[in-house]
Amino acid sequence: MSVRTPEIPASARLGGAGSILLAASLWGTTGTVRALAPEGASPVSVGAARIVVGGLLLVLLASLVGRGAELRRLLSSRRARLLLAVGVICVAVYQTAFFAGVARTGVATGTVVTIGSAPAFAGLLSWLTGGDPLSRRWLAATAGAVLGCAALIGGGQEAGVEPLGVALALLSGLGYAVYATIASHLIVGGGGDQAVVAALFGGAGLLLLPVLLLGSSGWMLTGSGLLVAGYLGGVTTAVGYVLYARGLRGTPVAVATTLGLAEPAVAALLGLAVLGEDLGGVALVGLAGIGCSLLLLVLPERR
């Protein structure tokens, strides 16, 4: 499965990177909004609600804007159905494995391992599948952004390491990388942006529906619970992943996963501004490191 993006103008590549950065910025609001959820809303339940609501909205959106034919055409291909099945499982896995990993090894370690491993896995998958070559610029930017994330999230915190928790966080990072690789392959291969994400997240929503129904989902029946679930599903998932899919048309998947590291930077800034959280000196250095690394990746190279 080769995932090689076609040659496109620099302006289009910049636009694709902008769409992915905007998507990552929306994802970065997830933690702040989740903190405003009613009592009794467990992280796993909130995560499942996000995918279930988002998947339903993506399927409805694809139908309303005339992408139903694209979705049916996508599902008519046996190879595409196989890739979609793997992608659906990976979307569900990276959500649930992340929360399970964080519960075992802590927020700081679990988050750093997940978001730090995803670009590495995506780069490895790109190399294994004969996709876009990995440049020294990508390697430098990815290393800088991952180190920045580690400093940002772990700054001022004592990191705990629990082997099973770390393994689950790595599984989450791998699941995200495989999902992104499959989505990129289907989109670059001619599948419609919205049709691809509707199929992937609609299927993942069905997989996670039992998790939501059998868990502590009563919080969704409150006013604030409905707002939280609606925002997480509608904005961070439906809008966010439509933007991400659009960006994948002109952005190599390894670069896209690295650009996604803007998410923790946005989350940290919102935590500071909205929740009154403190950022220590190490965290601020990490924030600056992420910003510089993403600029290195986005700005065009001098010729």
Automatic annotation (TrEMBL):
The chain crosses the membrane at residues 51-70, 82-101, 107-126, 138-155, 167-188, 195-213, 219-244, 253-275, 281-299. It is found in: Membrane. InterPro entries: AA-Vitamin_Transporters, EamA_dom, EmrE-like. The keyword Transmembrane applies. It is a multi-pass membrane protein. One of its GO terms (cellular component) is membrane. Keywords: Membrane, Transmembrane, Transmembrane helix. It comes from the Bacteria. Residues 16-152, 164-298 form the EamA domain. Its main location: membrane. SUPFAM superfamilies: Multidrug resistance efflux transporter EmrE. The keyword Cell cycle does not apply. PANTHER family: EAMA DOMAIN-CONTAINING PROTEIN (PTHR32322:SF2), INNER MEMBRANE TRANSPORTER (PTHR32322). Belongs to the EamA transporter family. This is EamA family transporter.
